[in-house]
Amino acid sequence: MKYRRIIKWIGGIAGVVVILLASGWLAFVPFAKEPPYSFVKAWGAPGSGPGQFNDPTGIAVAGEEVFVSDARNARIQVFDLDGNFKRAFPAPGETAVKLGRPMNLTVAGDELYVADYWTDRVEVFALDGRHRRTIGKTGTGPGEFKSPGGVAVAPNGDLYVVDFYNQRVQHLRADGGFVRQWGTTGKYGIWGGEFGYPTDAALGPDGTLYVADGYNDRVQAFSSDGKLSHKWGGPLAMNIWGPFSGWFATVTSIAVDKQGNVFVADFYNNRVQKFAPDGTFLTAIGTKGSGPGQFQHAMAGAVAEDGSLFIADLGNNRIHKWRPGR
Fold it and tell me: What proportion of the chain, given as a percentage, has pLDDT over 70?
């Protein structure tokens, strides 16, 4: 009888542990709430010719065109929605502006904003490739950058520039004038409102600012009044990485569609994850590999008007097109 009670007691404890573990799993590893996306096609190959890439790092869609940062070729390439090459800029030998290592891209109106990691500037082009202006310079002061990774543009022209090595996001006026910043310049942090090498930003339809907090493996969202609204990515969004749904292993890009859904490039997990505006996990796109619909580091994503998703596949030097599930 004594041993039977001990066994029963151990069994009860084991049951409680299992329940707690299961509850924790359900709390921190959500199930998909949308059907998976369907792979449509991919294009690109290593090289420096038209339609070839040497590290595609950023992507944006404007109307019927797809813009790609071809980082180590120091150029922007433009394609139609089926992947047919149209043009590239700056043209070889052009002296007006030279890109160093273009990163994430943003289209606002008739302009393309290019975060240039090596030159510590944001370059602004017309969509046909003509250079219009330069914003910022190297430094740690207001309106200065140390390797900007991405930029979001508000309807009034205000800019939100992700300042990678300065560990901050700067809010600037359209002319580059400083408004405010999030994060402490040069200070790495894991608490809300602090950053660990942020990489990109995007604005939601309601004015929410979403920041890809790169090495903290999370997304932080700030309301239109500048206050931290919510954050997600792993348990408590506290710099805990992992391969599970809703978790990240280095966040490199962020995009928002017209419904406010948030698409996050999950670099080392070789996928893009889709979330509702409040951070609810919806679905994941892609797996690791070199075959159709597989990635060697999903670097960036962008959404077309019809909901098609375009993804820059860094290691495979190509672009993928996906269609929403039915």
Answer: 90
